[in-house]
Design brief:
single chain, alpha+beta, Alpha-Beta Plaits, four-stranded antiparallel sheet, binds ligand 2BA
């Protein structure tokens, strides 16, 4: 058995959890914070039989793939006026650790 620790963006977490639970994976969701950006992200713990690891990774990847989005940014002028313009940013993606599980116990 393996434990997958998957860090995904908050925006993708709901879709990832839905995809996993629909496919009979059990998931624990943790609210976490990235050390670099200091922004919220989501860490998922998924206990998986060895033969299901690839399927699980593929489901996570399909709902959290890297993509670009346009978000509004604001520029200020010296005359005290501000304007909003769209900038392209990369969002999504997943960081996944796969760990060996020594024992899995439910009491
Ligand atoms: P990613 O590499 O896609 O990482 C997304 C989040 O996954 C990270 O959030 C962190 O919470 C987690 N993570 C990634 N690799 C990890 C690891 N080896 N161990 C533990 N957790 C890990 P943030 O730390 O806020 O980073 C957000 C994004 O900023 C990263 O995206 C990466 O593109 C960039 N980044 C992170 N650290 C950096 C650094 N030291 N220098 C330059 N860019 C960095």
């Amino acid at each position: 058995m393996k434990l997958l620790i998957a860090i995904v963006s908050n925006d993708d977490s709901s879709a990832v959890i839905t995809a996993l639970t629909k496919n009979k994976f059990q998931v624990t969701k943790l609210s976490t914070t990235g050390g670099f950006l200091r922004a919220g992200n989501t860490t998922l713990l998924v206990g998986v039989e060895d033969e299901k690891v690839e399927e699980c990774i593929s489901l996570i990847g399909s709902e959290s793939c890297k993509r670009t989005e346009m978000v509004p940014a604001t520029a200020s002028f010296d005359i005290g006026r501000y304007t909003s313009y769209p900038v392209e940013v990369q969002v999504g993606g997943a960081t996944i650790f796969v760990l060996n599980v020594e024992q899995f116990i439910k009491l």
